[in-house]
C-alpha cells in the first residue's frame, strides 16, 4: 500500500471532470509516438503535482503485438475504458490541468502498455457502471480503472493483474475510531462506500454478519468522492471506505485544512484471506488478456513499471509479475 501520495491539491479536478465529454483522448503532452516506433509517455503530465512528471520511452515489441486479435492490431488503436466520471478520483484517474486530457496512474499505465503493443490509445471516460457496459458492448477493448479481480467478474471478464489492491478506511483525525480488522468495530457507525464496487461487497457482507448477531451499521452512498468528503468533514459519516491510493491522497491533501483526516484502517481488496489485485479487464475470451499480461511483464522486466509506480507514489503496491486470471475476491468474503 502506498504511503507517499501527492502533497498538493488538484484544484481544477472537479470542474474539469464535470465539463469532460464521454471520450477524452490523450494529448501530445502525455504520449508521443516517434517515427522509429517508440512511444514516450510523460507519466504524471498535467497532474498539477499529484505525480512527479516522468518521461518513459517504450518500444513496440513485435512478438507481443503479434498476439493481439487481428481486428485490434490492424485498427491500430486500443480503446481504453476509464470509470472516472463525474469528478475523477486522483491519483487514479481524473481530468488534467488542460481541462481535457485524462491523467492518473491508470491511464498512464494504459499508455505504456499500448506503446509496447504498438497501438495508439483512445480513452472512453464514463461512470463506474458504464465502464463495464462499454466492455460488454465492445465500445471499450479493455478497462484500466482500478478494477479488482473477483471470481464473480471472471464469469464475464479476463484479467491481467498489475497492482496490489488495498482498501483504506478514512476518518477525521479527531475521531478516535479505527478499523482493527474485526468487523464488529463497525457496529453503530455510518460508513460511506462507492456503489457497485468490490469494497461495497465486502462492507455489505460484514453488515449481513453483524445483523445476524443483532447489530448493525449504516451504509451511506454519495454521487462522487467530493460529496463523500464533504459528508466526512461535516460529521454525516464516520468513515469512508475506498481504494487505498485515493484515500491516502485525500488524507495528504487535508493536512493543513480545517478538517484533517487520518488513515483509520486497511483491508485487502480480496477479502479476509487473499491479497487483492488490480487488473486490466477485457471481455472474456476476447483474446486480449495474454498480450496485455505480456506487455505489462515487459514493462516490469525493463524497469519502466517501477518508474511508473514511483512517479505516482504507489511503489509499495507493486507486483512481481502480471498474472492472467489469478485468484480473486471469492464469491463469498470468507
From TrEMBL:
Signal peptide: 1-30
Entries under InterPro entries matching the protein: Solute-binding_3/MltF_N (IPR001638), TAT_signal (IPR006311)
Keywords: Signal
CDD domains: PBP2_MidA_like (cd01004)
Keyword Signal: yes
Classification via SMART domains: PBPb
Span of domain Solute-binding protein family 3/N-terminal: 77-312
Xref: Pfam families: SBP_bac_3
Keyword Transcription regulation: no
Gene3D superfamilies reported in the protein's UniProt record: Periplasmic binding protein-like II
Protein's name in the database: Polar amino acid transport system substrate-binding protein
Native organism: Kutzneria buriramensis
Lineage summary: Bacteria, Bacillati, Actinomycetota, Actinomycetes, Pseudonocardiales
Amino acid at each position: 500500500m502506498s504511503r507517499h501520495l501527492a502533497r498538493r491539491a488538484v484544484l481544477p479536478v472537479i470542474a474539469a471532470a464535470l465539463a469532460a465529454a464521454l471520450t477524452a483522448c490523450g494529448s501530445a503532452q502525455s504520449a508521443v509516438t516517434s517515427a522509429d516506433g517508440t512511444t514516450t509517455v510523460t507519466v504524471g503530465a498535467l497532474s498539477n503535482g499529484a505525480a512527479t512528471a516522468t518521461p518513459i520511452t517504450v518500444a513496440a515489441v513485435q512478438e507481443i503485438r503479434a498476439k493481439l486479435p487481428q481486428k485490434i492490431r490492424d485498427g491500430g488503436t486500443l480503446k481504453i475504458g476509464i470509470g472516472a466520471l463525474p469528478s475523477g478520483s486522483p491519483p487514479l484517474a481524473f481530468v488534467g490541468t488542460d481541462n481535457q486530457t485524462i491523467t492518473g496512474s491508470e491511464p498512464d499505465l494504459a499508455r505504456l502498455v499500448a506503446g509496447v503493443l504498438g497501438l495508439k490509445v483512445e480513452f472512453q471516460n464514463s461512470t463506474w457502471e458504464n465502464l463495464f457496459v462499454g466492455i460488454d458492448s465492445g465500445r471499450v477493448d479493455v478497462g484500466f480503472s482500478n478494477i479488482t479481480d473477483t471470481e464473480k467478474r471472471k464469469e464475464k471478464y479476463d484479467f491481467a493483474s498489475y497492482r496490489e489492491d488495498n482498501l483504506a478506511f478514512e476518518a477525521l483525525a479527531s475521531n478516535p475510531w479505527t478499523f482493527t480488522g474485526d468487523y464488529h468495530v463497525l457496529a453503530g457507525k455510518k460508513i460511506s462506500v462507492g456503489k457497485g464496487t468490490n469494497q461495497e461487497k465486502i462492507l455489505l457482507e460484514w453488515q449481513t454478519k453483524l445483523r445476524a448477531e443483532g447489530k448493525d451499521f449504516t451504509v451511506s452512498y454519495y454521487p462522487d468522492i467530493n460529496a463523500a468528503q464533504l459528508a466526512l468533514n461535516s460529521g454525516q459519516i464516520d468513515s469512508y471506505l475506498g481504494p487505498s491510493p485515493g484515500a491516502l491522497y485525500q488524507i495528504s491533501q487535508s493536512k493543513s485544512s480545517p478538517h484533517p483526516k487520518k488513515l483509520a484502517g486497511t483491508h485487502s481488496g480480496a477479502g479476509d484471506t487473499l491479497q487483492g489485485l488490480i487488473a486490466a479487464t477485457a471481455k472474456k475470451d476476447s483474446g486480449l488478456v495474454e498480450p496485455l499480461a505480456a506487455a505489462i511483464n515487459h514493462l516490469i522486466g525493463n524497469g519502466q513499471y517501477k518508474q511508473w509506480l514511483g512517479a505516482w507514489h504507489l511503489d509499495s503496491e507493486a507486483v512481481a509479475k502480471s498474472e492472467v486470471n489469478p485468484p480473486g475476491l471469492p464469491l463469498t468474503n470468507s
